[in-house]
Amino acid sequence: MFTGLIQAVGTVLERQVTARAARLKIRTDLAEGLRLGDSVAVNGVCLTAARLGGGWFSADVMPETWRSSNLSFLKPGAAVNLEPALALGDRLGGHLVSGHVEGIGRILRIERQNNAVLIRIGFPKQLAPWIVHKGSIVVNGISLTVQALAGTEFMVSLIPHTYRETNFPGLKAGDPVNLETDLLAKYGRQGDAAVAEEPGRGKGISVEFLAEHGF
Hints:
six-stranded antiparallel barrel, Elongation Factor Tu (Ef-tu), domain 3, seven-stranded antiparallel beta sheet, 15% helix, globular, 4 helices, mainly beta, single chain
């Protein structure tokens, strides 16, 4: 699990792509504190540190992850947001993030308003049920709040610190970003759907309902 608070911005050193998988080698000072097998969110994608070296780590990326995230767009020299996995007892400063990217959004516009950086993002329509106004959203691994929502577009607002300490300064309109919707919202909605489908729910209390439940 992660919190969506970026700990460092790394640099892609190498990318190796085959028909079966891909591998990314990333330079970062965080590598000194990693152990083999540790989880690291790279642009919001949960990856495993499979190899470690002086100031770098590499991770294998499975085909499904490669297809459904913006990792496939990365080239050597690209900046990536990094966050090591949350340890039990750590402060939860953002919100619960699984590192399972659900889709790729596209930056539509970036503008400044006083001290805020406003970023408008288009998203796949299948994510619409879980993106809500004032709800949490993960963009390239960053825990943010949906400030505005219309159709298949939403807007987030970044404070100067968040903007500077992530890879957003290098992004522009048209660039792909990884999206993960709110984990609790997804489970809550799924639970509501399961209850609604339970026999007798929403139909009032009947003799059949009481008999079915042991009365």
